[in-house]
# Entry
Amino acid sequence: MAWWRGRDKSSGAGGASSPSVPTCTCCDGALDPGDPRFNLPLPDPVANLSVRDQETHITFLSDFMVATDIIGAFTRALLPVPLTDGRTVTFGVWVSIDWETYRYISELGRNGSDEEYSTMRFDGLLANTLEPWGRKILRAEVSAAIADSPFDRPTPQISSSAHATVAGMLSEAWAPRKVLTGTRAWALQYDTDAPPVPHRH
# Structure
């Protein structure tokens, strides 16, 4: 299913570390510690709404776009953070966007050609906190675009930020034990000699 498609009027809701490698919610295949990826389920402002308010005010919800009638619209973007062991941990975060950008992304997703889609670029505000960086990255200005990818119509990726902390997340190598904490700790079980396990979800 194309990433921009979703359903109207849905709702959703985000530890201790787990020693075992979890399975994909889409295909039940084991996730690959060599390519750790973590999707945040909702933008923080939406997650902080009560269940009643989510049911009342979310007007559109998919895995990749959220619209509300009180706190605006959001789109999914990938935030790649390099690690000192050579891996990259990828966070599926949310970016707050204005309504013009929301319509632009929706139109490209539904009706744009592959070539038009590949030129997608937009700016917005990071709508999630992440440890160990905490709340200092919330509302950081970010720019996103479509990066080279083996996937058809890949999720946009955050490419730059004027915010010093987010810029450092993108450009500096971080110690795995500093980033892969809590429920992410399964990805510390990384065998550098193990072959990669491609995962398409």
